Amino acid sequence: MREARLNQIESMLAAVIQTLGTLKAYFEEEREENGARYRETQRRFEQVDKRFEQIDQRFERVDERFDEVMEELRENRKEHLYMGERIFQNEIEIRKLKDVGATA
């Protein structure tokens, strides 16, 4: 009876060892696949980071150009205000000349 029990325990241990070996192989395979997926994900993140850097550089250029355009618009506004002032002054001078011409 004892011999049968030992044989049973031995066969159960062999089954456990075999199952553990299978699980170990499965986990190692999963680890390798996960490592490959991780490397691929890292590569993609690096690509995304590079793309964001490019986008940042473009935004910087757009921002610089926007500042340049705003400065040009400020200068144009100053010139337009000056021209409007000059036109107004010329109209006043023309009226004065007309008034002087009409009285003469």
Query: Low-confidence stretches at least 5 residues in length (pLDDT < 50)?
Result: none
- Tally the helices: 1
Order of helices and strands: H
Describe the global form: rod-shaped
Protein topology:
Layout: H1 2-103
Please provide a written account of the structure.
The chain is mainly α and 104 residues long. It contains 1 helix and no strands. It has one helix at 2-103. The longest helix is centred in the middle third of the chain and has 102 residues, at 2-103.
Would you kindly provide a brief summary of this structure?
This protein has 104 residues and is mainly alpha-helical.
Any key phrases for this structure?
0% strand; mainly alpha; single chain; 104 residues
